[in-house]
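Table S2 (text version). Query chain:
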Amino acid sequence: MLALLGAVSLRGSRGSRGAIRSGRSAPPRREDPRLDRVVAGYIEAALWSSHDDEDNALDAVDAELSEAAKAELRQDCADFLDSCDDADLDLSPIGSGQIGHDFWLTRNHHGAGFWDRGLGELGDRLTTLAHAAGGRDLYVSDAGAIEVR
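Corresponding structure-token output:
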């Protein structure tokens, strides 16, 4: 899964009110050592939970994530980790890949995610941050690449 990430290296930031700003250029914050594994879990969940027009899961279709999609998804995760750091959340009880997985599921209001992991207040706060990020969708473009909207 880490091979899907390629050499894209982005780090997110937020405006003065702490709202997540995805896909925008901004001064980089420190590189988070968890980021690659968070992104891998995020992409894995995104691909198996997203479907093409024929209802095939995107992890089973003959299409790859575009470089732009990889960059956007990585930025989503970087921004989320920044938000967690700003909220002073201790993420140590959760594996990095699970953070990415649950971030995708929770932000898109799937039937599982941070809120059902038995994390108590931490799960509730992570759910609030994930919902604040808004939903994302993957789709196969006319060019045959998997893109983000």
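Notes on Table S2: Residues 1-25 have pLDDT under 50 and may be disordered. The radius of gyration is 15 Å.
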